[in-house]
Write a structure and sequence with these properties.
By secondary structure, the chain is of the alpha/beta class. The chain folds into two domains: about 140 residues, Spore Coat Polysaccharide Biosynthesis Protein SpsA, Chain A (Alpha-Beta Complex), CATH 3.90.550.10; about 80 residues. A five-stranded mixed sheet has the order 1-6-2-7-5. A three-stranded mixed sheet has the order 4-3-8, with no helix packed on it. The mean pLDDT is about 90.
């Protein structure tokens, strides 16, 4: 029985016996030394996360592959979460890294278990941030990610939005011990970025996720300008960020649907 991406990953982590864990998707491709290289740096640095710099994406022809992201000018050796903001702004792939199992357990980090594959890596990345990990980034790209038309990154139905909202709700329940009005800014910004991304990608209206985001703002408060700047927001980006909930509320107002339903 398929219990969903997040549940399957959590089950595998729970039954693992090594010091480090990794997630590999069986349709993808990796070279023989993929984990050997990561574990070599784990033994040297004892870092919580050892990650390759990017992933390749391909459809049917592995020779026709595209590098999805590449971080530049990152710290050499081990660094921490505030040392390099770009690490948290990049593609949230969790499949091109290994994670210290003790670090995950000590910080209650796990995948949310929304139905199917519905961007569960986003909440996992946010949880990693709040765990304050030590990180080593290797300037290599070895993971080849097979791109299917039916994946969450290509879905345009309202079902994917329902699942994404469920993922965020579950995340806030799991994280209630360390998420409050002072610390919520990182999660709020990531949720905003996901709203914008899905709004551009979705054929159908993604308003339901945007409404959930605005409700979260009412609960946790707005991030500060300096936090947005740390995240790499330009002046125009900051203006758009603060105007976004006004636009959402206006569209909701003219729809004559109760906001606090």
């Amino acid at each position: 029985m398929n219990t969903g991406y997040g549940h399957t990953c959590n089950l595998g982590i729970a039954h693992s016996s090594g010091d480090y864990i990794a997630v590999f998707e069986p349709d993808d491709l990796i070279p023989d030394d993929f984990y050997q290289v990561l574990l070599h740096h784990a033994n040297i640095t004892n870092a919580d996360i050892i990650k390759y710099n990017g992933i390749y994406k391909f459809n049917t022809n592995v020779d026709n592959k595209e590098r999805i992201f590449k971080l530049k000018n990152f710290p050499k050796g081990k660094f921490f979460k505030y040392d390099y903001p770009r690490f948290w702004i990049s593609h949230p792939a969790t499949i091109n890294a290994i994670y210290k199992k003790e670090f995950l357990y000590n910080n209650c980090i796990k995948y949310v278990e929304g139905a199917g594959a519905s961007y569960q890596d986003v909440q996992f990345l946010v949880s990693l941030f709040y765990g304050n990990p030590s990180i080593v980034l290797l300037d290599q790209c070895k993971y080849m990610y097979r791109h299917h038309n039916g994946q969450s990154v290509n879905q345009t139905s309202s079902n994917i939005l329902d699942n994404v909202i469920k993922n965020w709700k579950e995340f806030f329940v799991i994280s209630r011990e360390f998420i409050n009005r002072e610390s919520s800014w990182f999660a709020i910004i990531q949720m905003y970025r996901q709203c914008i991304s899905l709004e551009k990608r979705m054929v159908r209206n993604s308003n339901q996720l945007s409404i959930f985001y605005v409700k979260s703002l009412f609960r946790y408060g707005f991030p500060k300008i300096e936090q947005l700047r740390w995240f790499g927001f330009s002046k125009i980006d900051i203006v758009k960020f603060y105007l976004f909930p006004i636009r959402v509320l206006f569209l909701y107002l003219i729809s004559k649907t109760p906001f606090f339903s």
